[in-house]
Amino acid sequence: MQVTAGDIQGSVDAVALWYHTIELPGGIATPGWFDLRPVVERMPWPDVRGKRCLDVGTYDGFLAFELERRGASEVLAADIADHASWDWPARARALGPDRLATMAGPEKGEGFRVAKAALGSAVERVEVSAYDLDPGQLGTFDVVVCGSLMLHLRDPVRALEAIRGVCRGHFLSAETIVADLALRFRRRAVVDFLGDDQLCQWWLPSPAAHRRMVHAAGFRIERHTRPYAIPFGPAHPPRAGHSASELRRRAAMRLAAGGDGVPHAAVLAVPEI
Ligand SMILES: C[S@@+](CC[C@H](N)C(=O)[O-])C[C@H]1O[C@@H](n2cnc3c(N)ncnc32)[C@H](O)[C@@H]1O
Description:
Elements: H1 5-13, E1 23-24, E2 28-29, E3 52-56, H2 62-69, E4 74-79, H3 90-93, H4 97-104, H5 110-119, E5 124-127, H6 135-138, E6 141-147, H7 156-166, E7 167-176, H8 179-184, E8 191-196, E9 201-205, H9 207-216, E10 219-224, E11 228-230, H10 244-257, E12 262-271
The chain binds S-adenosylmethionine.
């Protein structure tokens, strides 16, 4: 049976929350919170053609589908099974799983499944935490990609070490950084500690600290980007308007990352040990 643009639009509309803006057939784009399309070429991609690849913390799968689009021969997209499995700070965890689901949004993997079907993609979603990546279970990968995850983990270096354990080629790590720290500390590895209950955010590094974390996990950095901003997508909730701190944040963003959005920096690394 032929799938029409109307069918795709219907299944896109039925997903309660889209994290990623993803282009689907029929000129349809999912209404994500974040739109990686304008920055995807700024990421330091290795050649993935014919390679076995893994995307860690895939959400709706933007980076996994990008690996496939670039010619990967096999792509696994790893994510946790449910919202209770995030590394919630103690106060949030004490509220219980139902409350956590309300804070983090509805069912995990719904958007991924709709996008995969619409794209006719062969990417496979696997439910495994970054901490538990095990070469004995999943094998090893020529290319591992991980985006915007480390800030949500209580022990990011342990997760990076697990990534190191399944990576036999290149690791592309694209993480949220702090614009203001990028401006003030170009070389120093400085980290902002948040321990934020609502957004489940722990550590926000300077670009130098992000590189240091990847290095500490056993990688050698081959190259890294300058900071760049991931634009907010159409579904992102409105942000705190014109408070002094928000205006300062946006000014630092424009200076450090050249635009508005969420500041990121990316590295391409190879296992060293
Ligand atoms: C902020 S989103 C980033 C999505 C995507 N990687 C990107 O770069 O746009 C973080 C994702 O990591 C997942 N996640 C959270 N804790 C995780 C863990 N311990 N292991 C693997 N994925 C995790 C979340 O479920 C979510 O899908």
